[in-house]
Amino acid sequence: MATATSRTGDRRISPVFLGIAAVMAVTGWAVWTGFSANLGLAVFLFVTSGWIVSLCLHEYAHARTALHGGDITIGAKGYLTLNPLKYTHALLSIVLPVVFVIMGGIGLPGGAVFIERDRIRGRWKHSLVSAAGPLTNVLFAVVCTAPFWLDALDGVPFGFRFALAFLALLQVTAAILNFLPVPGLDGYGVVEPWLSYKVRRQVEPFAPFGLLAVFALLFVPEINHAFFGLVDTVLHALGVQDAETYCGQKLYRFWQGEDVFCGDIVNR
């Protein structure tokens, strides 16, 4: 009986996650209705909580797929509760991604759940475990942009529309970065099972520096332009225009003051 209770507890949704989701719901309502006296602050809280929710779902997807792949230790580690505090490194998983959103408006791939890979059999299962996280970001982006590509924006307040556009941008950047076949990122985890043992051993020492190398390269103007050009192309395909993501980011950074162009649109 105690074992059954423990297993149920391992999978019960964390109050921490429910609290974050509640903040997202309440602030989303405040943005939609204009209830908040400070629209920018409401957008900030809505997008930030939405981003944290997506990070939790990203890690949950890894964990759930690993569980079905054979790692039965996942539940005992608390990964199935959606509690961000249960991740192997909460600072890397939650705090740094949020800081990067505030500073640069880019979806930094988060930390990780610790998966006992030796329990998982089959290359396809290993690849799927790695792909599950960024695929969650893809799904989140599709949901955020649904009003855009469904041409269902009539009646959607501009503030909420811009917030969704910016949240979608974060999901798209996170998905693209995560799918890069760079050691330390999920994209490399997808291809790693198909590489020879010799290649994997040679690449392994560089894994801790993969993400740092990617961000260093993003400071190269040509690479930065190509990356955000790809992000814009994806967003355009989903019906989101540059002005919408721009205004979403401007509203999000409410401490910088209101942008005249975006303010005129919101206040129409």
TrEMBL record:
<dbReference type="InterPro" id="IPR052348">
    <property type="entry name" value="Metallopeptidase_M50B"/>
</dbReference>
<feature type="transmembrane region" description="Helical">
    <location>
        <begin position="127"/>
        <end position="150"/>
    </location>
</feature>
<feature type="transmembrane region" description="Helical">
    <location>
        <begin position="203"/>
        <end position="220"/>
    </location>
</feature>
<protein>
    <submittedName>
        <fullName>Site-2 protease family protein</fullName>
    </submittedName>
</protein>
<keyword id="KW-0645">Protease</keyword>
<feature type="transmembrane region" description="Helical">
    <location>
        <begin position="162"/>
        <end position="182"/>
    </location>
</feature>
<keyword id="KW-0479">Metal-binding</keyword>
<keyword id="KW-0482">Metalloprotease</keyword>
<dbReference type="GO" id="GO:0008233">
    <property type="term" value="F:peptidase activity"/>
</dbReference>
<dbReference type="InterPro" id="IPR044537">
    <property type="entry name" value="Rip2-like"/>
</dbReference>
<keyword id="KW-0862">Zinc</keyword>
<feature type="transmembrane region" description="Helical">
    <location>
        <begin position="12"/>
        <end position="32"/>
    </location>
</feature>
<comment type="similarity">
    <text>Belongs to the peptidase M50B family.</text>
</comment>
<keyword id="KW-0472">Membrane</keyword>
<feature type="transmembrane region" description="Helical">
    <location>
        <begin position="90"/>
        <end position="115"/>
    </location>
</feature>
<dbReference type="GO" id="GO:0006508">
    <property type="term" value="P:proteolysis"/>
</dbReference>
<keyword id="KW-1133">Transmembrane helix</keyword>
<keyword id="KW-0812">Transmembrane</keyword>
<keyword id="KW-0378">Hydrolase</keyword>
<keyword id="KW-1003">Cell membrane</keyword>
